[in-house]
Specification:
heterodimer, A: 593 residues, ABC transporter transmembrane region fold, 4-stranded antiparallel β-sheet, 19 helices, 9% strand, B: ABC transporter transmembrane region fold, 22 helices, 64% helix, 10% strand, elongated, binds adenosine-5'-diphosphate, binds magnesium ion
Chain lengths: 593, 626
């Protein structure tokens, strides 16, 4: 049940990792130091056995005690130097690699904030989160460890093989020949592994989504007593992940084992023919010891190649997953114009809108004009497209036909920040964050003064915030869940008012208010709306009365515009929507005509 | 955290002291996470040790077998240098002297066997240990998820979903990383250490003792690392949780973020937590940057000393060249796994910090516990709901319901109206046992809710909340959430009764339309209808509707009400609403204010009585129509 659209299986090749190379640029110096230190350390790892050889063949065999001390000290010194070089590499690396991770995460977050609503409704947030955490760690691991050792291990294998060839070429040749199966196996492994690791990563994303739903939806789950059901679903997903992970385990077990076997086979052959060689006087015992020491020193680099290649593969899939997001161009980008003296003249001209994945348009040619300072109520049945229409003004969505203008300028030509400073919306679902009440209020205007905050709170009748344990500094629970529904709505309303927009959009914002509070809010709003252009989505007659005119949205068009009473009297569809409030059976006779 | 929290200027410099950067978070009673932390003191607290033991318990046998396999594998691996020595010392002379290949061939044959044994054992080990690791991981996931599900809403109120997710993703990942490299690294390394140490002593006692003087240094270094890294990984876990919390919340509220141009400020906060995370990681990485080369330094110095001393003794003929060679090979093998151990140790420290966090969560008791001695609701649920002098407060000292005494007879439809913040939702949450009252009792059919099993209670009482969350999946899935075994016809019957069938059928895939990320594909009213349908399908004895129709237009609401009228016949219902049109189907109306019931009666009576709050409400509502 994956709803995340997969980019048609992008080849998770090296090129996706390569495309992220830009992030390495600031760390080029560090990376060079790192590489140099690593190469030098490998050099030392190779040299130390050679010193051993010198000691065995020199002081011991030649009975020359004087040479032992300097050679021994040399080995000691080289050992210390090696440790120091490892320290340098790790020290430098930690900075660079963490910098890399942090920067990609920064960019990812930035891009996600830019991507329009149409993207966010489509993508499950668990998938986004797993990219920002798990995928980034795997890239970090590869960049800091895998990449370097991939190169180093190959380098070490090559150099050691070279040295072995030099020491005694026939045996060296044997060792060189073993690289053929290693390379062949690695290539096959890569191919199989890429598929499995991509699946594991996607399934982890799925699981993250389920974890999130289990957390965010906890209240619904509880009120239906469906914890068991949800847990089973989660476990099913975890079991899928389990199965895939086991595939991965089996695959790598086979590969890792082979990688260890191959150098060991080389040891067998070398020992056999080397010993014969020594017996026949073709090489010295010291040479054979050095040869085998060096050969055994290849076991780890070759065996760990498995882990490293797996790491590389994971990093490639991860970067492909991240690039999937970087590759989505935000299709809502700002224009360049600004309105010097905005008046808030809002016009919808033949506005059409259809969601990309449905063929039925929601809006089919909306024409509506709201003059500066005027307030229009938007009335329509559930699902008729009122919210969509209001979302077109701050360009949360873009029209698919026609245009929306403010003071005659198409909103698509306006600078996006500027546009969104002109329009403020109080959404039907008050989106609050687990931050202080003040931070939630000043979302749209960080520089609001205390007096302005007070004023906005006053309009929204939201002075209850002062009664919270720490007043405005109280942390509002996640989604404002520590507040009552009406309190949340009033905070969201105060937030929109505080933004001091030219155009104020209220999307059914008073639905959770009791009649009494609603009345107070409406009175206060009236003052705000006096010189602000208003678009108010309403279900209740009381709210409609805030407006100068009412527009009826039907079948994707504005079919009637007029005054509440006039519409009540003349438009049956309107009477159905708002008038029926008035025909409560019990109280029928009391309703004024 | 300080109480004076000034507005942060929008251009906060990156180097902001912790106090200031967190001021946007605001103040809360207790940070749930901090609370959970306190319970697990120190490094690898008691809770996480116990958890680890519990997790490993079922695999005792398997682990023993694994250790056997590893012993075999390592024996084979360790034999190789020894066999090399044998090959040189005893295989070569016969060739030299009389071209006799046999001793060498025997030895090489043994090496071959050793190699094959090692390979088979290794393969077996990797698969089995991988499986155990995955089993454990699955078990952790399962437990943690279920435990989060079992914890009360009160816990979730403070903990935030971001943290819940962080526990289940990044903490579990840390454990995964350990399990992946864990067994392997640790067991192999420990065995190699012990095995090699023994072999060294066996080969040559004096030389062996010299080589083993490195032990105390290794121990000291490891202890230092353990202490420091435990601290630093704890911080890392906390910081990554901050990153995740902020990430999840800003993606969840992206509509408001974009509409209010919150992006720059969000980016700032994100950069800050991101950077804090980076710095925490940096500390951990730097510790490793000391630790690993430290181990290597000790190893290399040991090799140097052995070389000098061994060379000296070889010179005097006290040891053979073969022994010296084997010694050096073994020392190399001794320190190679030391690197692995330290690598493992590193992931282990990170994992145990994560384990601590998880153990902290698992130790958290639900504040509404399951009864130890549950009472059965015999003979079906009648549906009488009684609040017996109930008092409730979310925050100590701030009572929301001071003293509520109320009986809703079985089958009654009760409407609850009142100012926002009066405590209506709170009352509903007490009836569904989201919280337990601070004082007094809530009773269903005369039984205290605290004595009912949660499953029984949830079957009997269902609430449609103000926030109607939809899960990813199809519309039908979401409706079936109320009763997973409902047939398609039953689903359609429910939606048809509620007037939702038409809009659902008009969707591209009808009932199989994916609702997209938390219902993003539906309008708010449509979401309410779906939420309603699932309550409908659940068909409980007591139905609580908390402003469940607030986003519907009046005709839709009317349809819902008609459906309710048939469904509610014989059931107890509590309807919380503001619109009098919603209230009209009630038998009885309660008006609440500041947690108290100020009026109680049949709607018509209350209006007729005049002067009361309900009639005031009614007046106000009439006015609004004028
Ligand atoms: N992201 C989406 N993808 C596809 N269809 C959508 C999406 N969001 C809303 N819709 C559909 O668009 C229509 C209008 O929705 P909306 O404007 O929210 O209605 P309302 O008038 O109740 O505010 C609804 O039928 C809804 O199902
Ligand atoms: N989780 C919570 N933590 C702290 N206070 C809360 C919490 N939930 C609600 N409150 C407070 O309790 C009071 C009653 O809320 P509620 O019952 O939701 O009111 P309503 O009557 O509007 O449904 C409000 O003042 C609200 O701020
Ligand atoms: Mg809407
Ligand atoms: Mg409420």
């Amino acid at each position: 049940m994956m709803t995340t659209p997969e980019a048609a299986d992008p080849p998770a090749g090296i090129h996706s990792l390569w495309r992220l190379r830009g992030y390495l640029r600031p760390h080029v110096a560090a990376l060079s130091i790192m590489a140099a230190a690593a190469v030098a350390a490998v050099g030392l790892t190779i040299t130390i056995p050679l010193v051993t050889k010198a000691i065995i063949d020199g002081p011991i065999t030649d009975r020359d005690l004087g040479a032992l001390l300097p050679l021994g000290l040399l080995a000691l010194g080289l050992g210390v130097l090696e440790a120091f070089l490892i320290w340098v590499r790790r020290w430098v690396q930690s900075n660079a690699v963490l910098g890399l991770e942090t920067e990609i995460r920064h960019d990812l977050y930035e891009r996600l904030q830019e991507l329009p609503m149409s993207f966010h409704t489509r993508w499950e947030s668990g998938q986004l989160l797993s990219r920002a955490t798990q995928d980034l760690s795997s890239i970090r691991r590869f960049a800091g460890f895998g990449l370097l050792f991939l190169v180093l291990n190959i380098l070490q294998v090559t150099v050691v093989t070279g040295v072995l060839l030099h020491l005694y070429w026939p045996l060296g040749l044997v060792v060189a020949a073993t690289t053929v199966p290693v390379v062949w196996l690695s290539m096959r492994f890569e191919k199989a592994y890429v598929v499995v690791s991509r699946r594991v990563q996607d399934e982890q994303g799925d699981l993250a989504t389920r974890a999130e739903e289990g957390a965010v939806g906890i209240r619904v789950i509880k009120s239906f007593g469906r914890s068991e059901h949800v847990s089973e679903q989660y476990e099913a997903a975890a079991r899928t992940l389990y199965a895939t992970s086991m595939d991965k385990v089996r695959l790598s077990a086979r590969f890792f084992t082979f990688l260890e076997v191959i150098p060991n086979c080389a040891v067998v052959i070398v020992l056999l023919s080397g010993a014969i060689g020594v017996g026949k006087g073709l090489l010295t015992p010291g040479e054979l010891v050095a040869f085998i020491t060096l050969l055994l020193s290849l076991v780890w680099p070759v065996a760990s190649l498995g882990v490293i290649l797996a790491m590389a593969q994971e990093a490639m899939t991860s970067s492909a997953r991240i690039l999937e997001i970087f590759d989505i161009e935000p299709d809502i980008v700002g224009g360049t114009q600004t309105i010097a003296e905005p008046r808030g003249h809002l016009r919808f001209e033949g506005v059409e809108f259809a969601f990309p994945d449905s063929d039925e348009p929601v809006l089919r040619g909306v024409d509506l004009e709201i003059r500066p300072g005027e307030t229009v109520a938007l009335v329509g049945a559930t699902g008729s497209g009122k919210t969509v229409l209001t979302a077109l003004v701050p360009r949360l969505f873009d029209v698919t036909g026609g245009r929306v203008t403010i003071d005659g300028v198409d909103v698509r030509e306006l600078d996006l920040g500027h546009l969104r400073s002109l329009v403020a919306t109080a959404f039907e679902e008050p989106t609050l964050f687990s931050m202080s009440a003040r931070e939630n209020l000043t979302l749209g205007r960080a520089d609001a003064t205390d007096a302005e905050v007070e004023q906005a709170l006053d309009v929204a009748q939201a002075d209850f915030v002062h009664d919270l344990p720490w007043g405005l500094d109280t942390r509002v629970g996640e989604q404002g869940l520590s507040l009552s529904g009406g309190q949340r709505q009033r905070l969201a309303l105060a937030r929109a008012v505080l933004a001091q927009p030219k155009i104020l959009v209220l999307d059914d914002t008073l639905s959770a208010l009791d009649v009494h509070t609603e009345k107070l809010v409406e009175e206060a709003l009236q003052r705000v709306l006096a010189d602000t252009t208003g678009l108010i989505v309403a279900h209740r007659a009381s709210t409609v009365l805030l407006a100068d005119r009412v527009a009826l949205l039907q079948d994707g068009r504005i079919t009637h515009v007029g005054d509440h009473r006039e519409l009540l009297a003349t438009v049956p569809a309107y009477r159905d929507l708002l008038g029926s409030d008035a025909d409560l059976p019990v109280l029928e006779d009391e309703v004024p005509a | 955290m300080t109480t004076e929290t000034p507005e942060i200027p929008p251009e906060t410099p990156p180097e902001v002291p912790v106090d200031e950067t967190t001021s946007w978070r605001g103040l809360a009673e207790v940070d749930a996470d901090e609370a959970a932390e306190r319970m697990t003191a120190g490094t690898l607290g008691g809770g996480s040790k116990r958890l680890l033991r519990e997790l490993l318990a079922p695999y005792k046998r398997a682990i023993q077998v694994l250790i056997g396999i590893v012993v075999l594998e390592n024996a084979a691996r360790l034999a190789i240098p020894y066999l090399v020595k044998e090959g040189i010392d005893t295989g070569i002379p016969p060739i030299r002297e009389h071209d006799d290949l046999e001793p060498l061939l025997v030895i090489v044959g043994i090496v071959l066997v050793a190699t094959i044994t090692q390979a088979l054992a290794r393969q077996l080990f990797l698969v089995r240990s991988g499986q155990i690791g995955q089993d454990i991981l699955f078990e952790i996931r399962r437990r943690v998820f279920r435990h989060f599900q079992a914890l009360s809403p009160a816990f979730h109120d403070g903990y935030t979903s971001g943290r819940v997710i962080s526990r289940q993703t990044s903490d579990v990942d840390a454990i995964y990383e350990m399990l992946e490299t864990g067994f392997d690294g640790l067991v192999t390394a420990a065995l190699t250490l012990v095995g090699t140490a023994g072999l060294l002593l066996f080969l040559d006692v004096k030389l062996g003792l010299v080589a083993l003087t490195c032990g105390p240094f290794l121990a000291w270094l490891t202890m230092w690392f353990r202490r420091e890294s435990a601290k630093s990984y704890k911080v890392t876990r906390e910081k990554v949780a901050l990153v995740i919390v902020h990430f999840v919340e800003s993606m969840g509220g992206i509509r408001a973020v974009q509409a209010f141009r919150r992006e720059p400020r969000n980016q700032e906060i994100f950069d800050d937590v991101n950077d804090q995370y980076r710095r925490a990681n940096l500390v951990a990485f730097r510790l490793v940057a000391w630790f690993m080369p430290g181990i290597r330094l000790i190893g290399n110095v040991t090799i140097g000393v052995v070389l000098l001393y061994g060379g000296y003794r070889a010179y005097h003929g006290d040891v053979t060249v073969g022994v010296l060679a084997a010694f050096l090979l073994y020392l190399r093998q001794f320190f190679e796994p030391m690197m692995e151990i330290s690598q493992f140790y590193n992931t282990f420290q990170s994992a145990s910090a994560a384990l601590d966090k998880l153990a902290g969560v698992l130790d958290e008791e639900p504040s509404v516990p399951e009864p130890t001695d549950p009472v059965e609701l015999s003979g079906g649920v009648g549906g009488e709901l009684r609040f017996d002098h109930v008092a409730f407060e979310y925050v100590a000292g701030r009572p929301v319901l001071p003293d509520l005494d109320l009986t809703v007879p079985a089958g009654q439809t009760l409407a609850l109206v009142g100012t926002t913040g009066a405590g209506k939702t709170t009352l509903a949450k007490l009836a569904t046992r989201f919280y337990d009252p601070t004082a007094g009792r809530v009773l269903l059919d005369g039984t205290d809710l605290r004595d009912l099993r949660t499953d029984d209670l949830r079957d009997a009482v269902v609430m449609v909340t103000q926030e109607n969350y939809l899960f990813s999946g199809t519309i039908a899935d979401n409706i079936r959430f109320g009763r997973p075994d409902a047939t398609f016809d039953e689903v359609v019957a429910a939606t048809t009764a509620l007037g939702a069938h038409d809009f659902i059928s008009a969707m591209p895939d009808g009932y199989d339309t994916d609702v997209a990320n938390s219902g993003g594909r539906l309008s708010a009213g449509q979401r309410q209808l779906v939420a309603f349908a699932r309550a409908f399908l659940a068909d409980p004895a007591v139905l609580i509707l908390d402003e469940a129709t607030s986003s519907l237009d009046v005709p839709s609401e009317r349809l819902v009400q008609q459906a309710l009228r048939t469904v509610l016949a014989g059931r107890t219902a509590v309807i919380i609403a503001h619109r009098l049109s919603t209230v009209e189907i009630a038998d009885r109306v309660l008006v609440m204010e500041h947690g108290r019931i100020v009026e109680d009666g049949a709607p018509a009576d209350l209006v007729a009585g005049g002067g009361g709050r309900y009639s005031e409400l009614h007046e106000a509502w009439l006015e609004s129509l004028a």
